[in-house]
Amino acid sequence: MKTNLLLTPGPTPVPEAVRRVLAEPIIHHRTPQYRKIFQDVSERLKKVFLTKNPVYTYTGSGTMCMEASIVNFHSTGDQTLVVEGGKFAERFTKIAKAFGLKPTAMKVTYGEAVNPEAVREELKKNKDIKSVCVQLCETSTAVLNDIKALGKVVAETDAILIVDAISGLAADRLETDNWGVDLVIGGSQKALMLPPGLAFLSVSAKARQRVDTANIPRFYSDLRAYEKGMADADTPWTPAVGLVLGLGKSLELIEQEGLENVFKRCADNAAFAREKVKAMGMELFSKAPSSTLTAAVLPQGIDGKKLVKVMRDEKGVTFAGGQGELEGKIVRMCHMGAITRSDLEEGLRVLRATLEEMSVGSK
Amino acid sequence: MKTNLLLTPGPTPVPEAVRRVLAEPIIHHRTPQYRKIFQDVSERLKKVFLTKNPVYTYTGSGTMCMEASIVNFHSTGDQTLVVEGGKFAERFTKIAKAFGLKPTAMKVTYGEAVNPEAVREELKKNKDIKSVCVQLCETSTAVLNDIKALGKVVAETDAILIVDAISGLAADRLETDNWGVDLVIGGSQKALMLPPGLAFLSVSAKARQRVDTANIPRFYSDLRAYEKGMADADTPWTPAVGLVLGLGKSLELIEQEGLENVFKRCADNAAFAREKVKAMGMELFSKAPSSTLTAAVLPQGIDGKKLVKVMRDEKGVTFAGGQGELEGKIVRMCHMGAITRSDLEEGLRVLRATLEEMSVGSK
User: Fold this and answer.
1) How confident is the model over B180-193, as pLDDT tens digits?
2) Is B11 within 8 Å of A28 when comparing Cβ atoms?
3) Closest-approach residue (CA) in chain A for B94
């Protein structure tokens, strides 16, 4: 088997320059040396989030910051409107329920983006809605939501806009401040080109007002502890030091390329992948395709689970399959982070060949 | 400045063999390849925890699993007895309060171990105590608690024994099953010789009975999600894949040396350090010294904060200072993980020289 070509939408490949940093001797976090590094990456993260708001670094999976976005900014019984168009959207609903909120799911057909006007109507109808939760890019369907339009809609109300940009950040454009996004959730293992283990949360002034009155019990995720830490360029609990050092390097790679160029590269590669998928006779699953990843609807009769397995185990190319109700029906390939045009070409070549073999085999 | 010699009680130095694994290309976690690795390390972790109970791996700081040990096994209003003899013990109290428990602090003089008979008396007096929280090794004071005796005391009751072994595990002996410990909390950045970012929780059958009736809201830390994941050799949220791969290697290093030999080496090095500290005319802070780290009481007139700074920034040796009320008064040096006798000798040599310089300087 060849070296595995990882085309999954997270974890994404970690560039060698970053991996070299991950292999360096560890340093202690309660030192001026580390504080300087942490302060530096915290500032530079803002430029990727396109915000002047503070960006907090949590040690955990992205889900940790999804939880942080609920527990720090709501009280028991609060209503939240969750745009539900895929697996990760559903996680917001589960978290909200777990902490005693009353989530209303705005169901969106899988593969479609939410209509911002529908959100406006809902917010008009129900003034008690405290927040709107939505994915920038819903990784399970490859849908890009129109956060700019949603930002305008939510800004007219007292609700806050919570955007899960775990996948999407630094691949699909997200102008946190210009678009009025209150909370942005990020993760290390996507376009930030690191292994999983860090999650990020940017917090607007409008959202911050909620924190001291929010009554949901919390400790590890308590924003106030992170704020107190950040005042001293520190974190409340022992941070994933190695990943923070690696983050310095991956931010450097992004800065060298330029964030606008990164957006353009992802968009170009996504357009390329869509064209190739269509040329293979497949449809795109997403009606609002993202630049983060592309989802292709597999031809009738193709077992998607087997396809992914054969590609990964026999041909060294890892695609993602479908999740939940999409299991076996789609394949997903990533464009963000360190994935290059030639990686994509290779992945698509193997996809085409494997589809042909399986079609012949099934006749 | 020389290469920094890290003698802090976490993070501890990461061996080169482990760092090489951390630098390897990342793999995807929802694959049979990763599941096999995760299942394997989960089984091998049990041998370090000396338990047949499941050991769950959380992505987060050790504090994440301290929180998990509270929220999954208690209900609002539950009473817990916290053995409070240092900074990390106090964290248990803070977590318990944050989630609506009623913690009773059993104050223990800093530097002393808890008297198991005092715990027995407290449990006799108050049958409503649902749990006893204690550190194996209280890192802030270098005290080793007698978990074996505490295990007997708590086993006589319906309470569960929660041991924070974040530092201590695989350095000071902890026989989870033989001693009747219900929950053991571990962390990656101590004797497991990894960067921070993973936390571990072993769960006894007695503790498990509590989980389904425990009413504290939880999501990220919800044990039931981890159990469901583990049934398929998986985790509920994206794991810190790189650290899990590194864990395979650090467990291999422990297995090669043999856990009993690891305990003996740490004990021998701790005895060596204590002897040297006394030979320098200093007292040991801990009346119940651990094999994990040694805390030396600095001579009158020595500014401990300055000492640590000079050693670290000018001499390339990082010790830990005192925390909280011990700030400036003690230095702490670590014996666990990959720290060798010659590392300790070098650290102690630099400590002696720096103390002499500072004594001369202050005259």
Assistant:
1) 999 999 999 999 99
2) yes
3) A219
